[in-house]
Amino acid sequence: MEKKDIKKVVLAYSGGLDTSIIIPWLKENYNDPEIIAVAGNVGQADELEGLEEKAIKTGASKLIVADLVDEMVEDIIIPSLKMDAKYETYLLGTAFARPVIGKKLAEIAVAEGADAIVHGCTGKGNDQVRFELAIKRFAPDMKVIAPWREWSIKSRDEEIDYAEAHNVPLKISRETNYSKDKNIWHLSHEGLDLEDPANEPQYEKPGFLEMGVSPIQAPDTPTYITLDFEAGAPVAFNGEKMKASKIIEKLNEVGGANGIGIIDIVENRLVGMKDRGVYETPGGTILYFAHELLEQITVDKETLHVKQKLAIDYADMIYNGKWYTPLQEALTAFANESNKYVTGTVKIKLYKGNMIPAGITSPYSLYSESLASFGESDYDQKDSKGFITLWGLPTKVQAYREQGKL
Question: I need a surface site. Which of 130, 222, 347, 396 has the fewest CB within 10 A?
Answer without folding.
Answer: 396
